Amino acid sequence: MKKVYYLSFYYRDMPNRQQRKYVLAGVNKADYICRCLLDDNYDVEVISPNVALNGEFLPAELRRYQDGLKHKLFTSLRAKSKIGRAFRRIYMQCALFAYLVKSVKREEPLIVYHSLYYCGLVRWVKRITKCKLILEVEEIYSDAMEGSSRRREKEVHFFQYADAYIFPTELLAESINTDAKEQIIAYGNYHCAERYENKRSDGMIHCVYAGTLGLKKGGAAAAVAAARYLPERYAVHVLGEGTGQQMRELLIKIDQTNQESQCRVTYDGVLTGEKFSQFLQSCQIGLSTQNPNGAFNDTSFPSKILTYLCNGLKVVSVRIPAVERSAISGAVTFYEEQTPEAIADAILKVKLDGKDSKDLIRQLDLKCKKELAQLIG
Length: 377
Prior knowledge:
With 377 residues, the chain is an alpha/beta fold. The chain is built from 13 helices and 14 strands. Helix 2 (82-103) runs parallel beside helix 3, helix 7 (219-226) runs parallel beside helix 8 (244-260) and helix 7 (219-226) packs across helix 12 (340-349). The chain is globular and about 60 Å long.
């Protein structure tokens, strides 16, 4: 059985365990890649430098899950101060480096979910171990964070150390893989969620925005604003998390909209797992309404679109090249301008009795598994 190592900020919640920090979107994508590898009978070990959520001490552990996945987690030192957090970071990176150099053998595949946290470290691991480095690049973080051109230069330079790539969009592949190395395109998690019989019986058409509440991407605020131009038989739901300030601003917008529109808007909290899928499937239309002007839109794929499709929803999205040029563009209703009127107009045009997206997702799933196996070698 061939061994595959996967470096990622991966995490699975377990009963009676203190939680470590993680980003749900990244975990969902990593979970899917792991599932593909396990289905092809690879011996998969995920290596994760996640620290404790509350700054408390957590011991190192090697977890073994029922699906066969191994998961290495490192000691997370107590860190309640700025100095403590800095020391914890240094310790974590040293422990991570030592483990990778000790574990990964020459020409063994090491998949790395791109992160600025360990770019320099991975470069040295590649030099020392001579492993096959497969870099999973979801976006250019310097674009998403609007960093300096020098920072972007360094980030893009790191990409050249890879022997092969996993990209979320054709556009990002064209931008980075200029040497025509091995690559695959995986838009996101192609695992179709279990179907639940829980459609609402109120005769209304329910739209949902599920994602970040941050003003930078602006998707939640845009979805709420569109509700002003929808009739009373529509409802708009918002799911997701944000800072305290973002929450307060969103709730004010929702309250104002409910006072001035026929369409009802609600914030329905943060949901995960089965409850998240059940809620999505109780709706008919998923909204991908992020600001199209951000530099990140040139290369990143909105993971929420696949989440909606995997749960059987119709999708409304702003027209951006990454989505328009993808294999799922035919399953999306696009709008052209980032205005509440344009979003509402696209929602009203959605044909709810159209073809289900399950077959398309299954085809993409089979294609991804085949290409990933070839990439591993």
